[in-house]
Amino acid sequence: MPDLVRAAYSALMWLAQPLLLRKLRRRGRDEPGYLAAIPERFGRYPRPIDSLVPYSTMDPLGQFVWVHAVSLGETRAAAVLLARLRARLPGMRLLLTHSTATGRAEGEKLLTPGDVQVWLPWDTPGAVARFLRQFRPAVGVLMETEVWPNLVEACRARGVPLVLANARLNARSLQRALRLALLARPAYRGLAAVYAQTAADADRLRALGAPVAGVFGNLKFDATPDAELLAQGRAWRAAAGRPVVLLASSREGEEALWLQALQNLQGRAGGAAALAGVQWLVVPRHPQRFDEVAALLRSSGLTVSRRSAWAAAPEPAQVWLGDSLGEMPRYYGMADVVLLGGSFGEFGGQNLIEAAACGCPVVLGPHTFNFSEAAEQACEAQAAQRVADMAVGLREALAWLVDTDALAQRRTRALAFATAHRGAAEATADAIAALLWQGRAGR
Which of 40, 74, 153, 354 is flagged as catalytic? Predict the structure, then answer.
């Protein structure tokens, strides 16, 4: 029965390719990166890999270490892991794959001579087979959530150990997977190992048959913010001469919630005075929304200065718009308080760990199911505080600005929280290296 189900799934994936291709081209109008190397999405490459990049004579494996990081967040987590893997495997050749343009752009920074970066092909048997024949990886590492039935089966059949690292699975995703259990269970069972972020993630993954081999924590705790960007952000905040409140990694509809909360607060007694002394900073999560958010802010009567237009420093405006990629440490350095995007709409929250590592206390909305344990731990450590909605969150952020001593304590607690949970990168790198050498010894 599972084979029949996977065959039906494969047929649907094959039939859906024209629709997927149309979606890709539509997204490419806003993000040209999606239009790069489209044949790779089908597992088609210009020439054999040996003619693209000669094998390194220093490579102890003779094959690629393949890491798949679907988008921006996973790629940043992969960066932490890769630094440890390269230390354990001198001369390692990396095959780095992605599914989104932002992930691929960020991943370019991680490449060294001899490495290769391509799109992960769509999950059809033919595309996956061509991908594996082309690159012949020694081991595959999927970051966080990316488990594809045909990919897992093809790796199993070819003897490529495939692991899920920094693995997470929230309750909603578990229920969706259980509704497709005939497809999902064989895929999770086919993995060589799973390294979970939390005990709760491990329990949910085991419910799908995943071979959980360790609970190592979240790799994102091991990321170190760029010191130069962080320092420049702090210098810009000091030059502003007033406190800065950051709406970080905002998602669709959350800027409108923030604007409505601002308007409501202005109508309350003392509200206008409290708002007048604040510098606002908004950083949307996705670059294709930069223009849309700028237009929304201006249509609400606010003056806007976009990061892309700055020369040496931010230009005066009621709202600074962070319309750039790879600069979150700079934005967190500019901020006194962070309203965490993705947590006020039903998106599950964005990465609060990066904010904490930059010493930024965080106000969380009610929706943090993507980072549930980290969110709870941050609140317990008083590095963050959960609120019911954007209106309450805005009032809480403003209250923190008034009590400067308490705000300084929250900054200290945020840094302590981020530091206390490190160690996942070392444990994960050790486990992957051991698996790789074990597999090589058995050949």
Answer: 74
Task: Give the CA distances from residue 30 to residues 26, 33, 102, 147, 292, in Å, rounded to whole numbers and listed in that order.
Answer: 8, 9, 12, 27, 11
Which is it for strands 94-98 and 116-119: parallel, antiparallel or unpaired? parallel
φ and ψ of 286, to 5 deg? -115, 130
Q: Is residue 74 flagged as an active site residue?
A: yes
**Are 130 and 120 a contacting pair, CB within 8 Å?**
no
Q: How far apart are CA 300 and CA 17, in angstroms?
A: 41
Mark whether 80 and 96 lie in a shared domain: yes
What residues contact 96, with CB distance under 8 A and at least 6 apart? 66, 67, 68, 69, 78, 107, 110, 111, 115, 116, 117, 118
In this structure, the answer to whether residues 181 and 248 fall within a common structural domain is: no
Task: Give 7's contacts (C-beta < 8 A, 6+ positions apart).
Answer: none
- For residue 390, the Cα-to-chain-centroid distance in whole angstroms is 23
Q: Are residues 251 and 395 in the same domain?
A: yes
- Assess if residue 222 is contained within a domain: no
Phi and psi based region of residue 270 (left: phi greater than 0; alpha: psi -120 to 50; beta: remaining): left
User: Do residue 172 and residue 239 come from a single domain?
Assistant: no
- pTM of structure: 0.87
Q: Tell whether the torsion through CA atoms of 377, 383, 386 and 389 is positive or negative.
A: negative
Instruction: Write out the E strands in 132-174.
Output: 139-143, 162-167
In tens, the pLDDT along 232-270 reads 999 999 999 999 999 999 999 999 999 999 999 887 766
Range of the domain at 299: 227-420
Distances (CA, A) of 389 to 66, 266, 281, 283: 41, 17, 19, 19
Domain-located, residue 40: yes
In this structure, the answer to whether residues 232 and 335 fall within a common structural domain is yes
Distance CA 389, CA 373 (A): 20
- Integer angstrom CA distances of residue 51 from 48, 100, 121: 6, 26, 21
Residue the block writes with tokens 């992960």: 120
Q: What is the CATH number of the domain that holds 379?
A: 3.40.50.2000
| Cβ proximity of 43 and 129 under 8 Å | yes
Q: 22-36, pLDDT tens digit by residue?
A: 999 998 888 899 999
